[in-house]
Amino acid sequence: MTKEQKNQVRNYLLDKKLPVDLMMEVEDHFVSQINELQMEKDLPFDEAFNAAIISWHDDLKLFWDGNWSLENTSMLIKKSTRQKLFSILKKSVMLAVFSYVVMVLFYLLIPFNVFRIGVGVLISIIMIIPLIIYIKEKKYFDLPKKYKNIRLSAYQDMVIIFFILPMSSSWIFRFILESNDGFLDIGQLEGFFVNFLFLFFFLFEAAIIVSQQKYLEIIKKIIPYLQENFEVSN
Predict the structure, then answer these.
(1) How far apart are CA 42 and CA 29, in angstroms?
(2) Is the predicted pLDDT of residue 33 greater than 80, yes or no?
(3) φ, ψ for residue 64, nearest 5 deg
(4) Could you tell me the sign of the dihedral formed by the alpha carbons of 34, 47, 227, 135, in that order?
């Protein structure tokens, strides 16, 4: 397959709104399928390409699914995004439950004054970690700005939210600083509510950190492909 023919395949997939990480996978399938059709059925490129388009029609057909963004999507994009989100949530739940259990054990086993200081430090660290990751890997998080006309990955939409919770989490410190021994007692309504808020906090922060790691993992893989096939936006 010539470079021009590969560009034709790539442009078709770009028209289908595929993010680059997903497009790389689909492009490989398209190229392999076209090559097989050309070899096995002795078809010219255009006919083999059209046959591949028809076979992928249902997966790549664009439609509006009623979401708030008003952007058209496809079944393949929706499936890929769901898989990414499930992967993030699965790992985040494990990390959140582990953090919550550790906090409860400390609450039960050490003096409350020591616990209050320790949890305050722990929460501060958890809130700072996403910012440290962002600063350390800023060139990768800024990459979508260099390729404004294409979407690099579904993960890029998930990582930008890490500013939200740290700026609105003063309630965590208020609970810790103003609470008395027994504030995690689930036998009381307030204790049940506080336990739920802590678990939500751990889950949200874990999801942010996991999203960042997933994003960086994908972006570092697609950079050579980007540099080879796309120009930086002005």
Answers:
(1) 19
(2) yes
(3) -95, 125
(4) negative
Tokens of 23: 């497009």
Q: Is the pLDDT of residue 185 over 90?
A: no
Q: 13 and 23 in contact (C-beta within 8 Å)? A: yes
- Note the maximum CA span of the chain: 79
Structure tokens at 169: 């989490």
Buried b (16+ CB within 10 A) or exposed e, 64-85: eeeeeeeeebbebbeebbeebe
Helix/strand/coil for 51: helix
Amino acid of residue 147? Y
CA-closest candidate to residue 129, choices 178, 179, 95:
95
What residue segments make up the domains of the chain, in order of their start?
3-60, 80-229
Which token pair is 234? 């002005």
Place of tokens 């079944």: 75
Average pLDDT for 43-58: 93
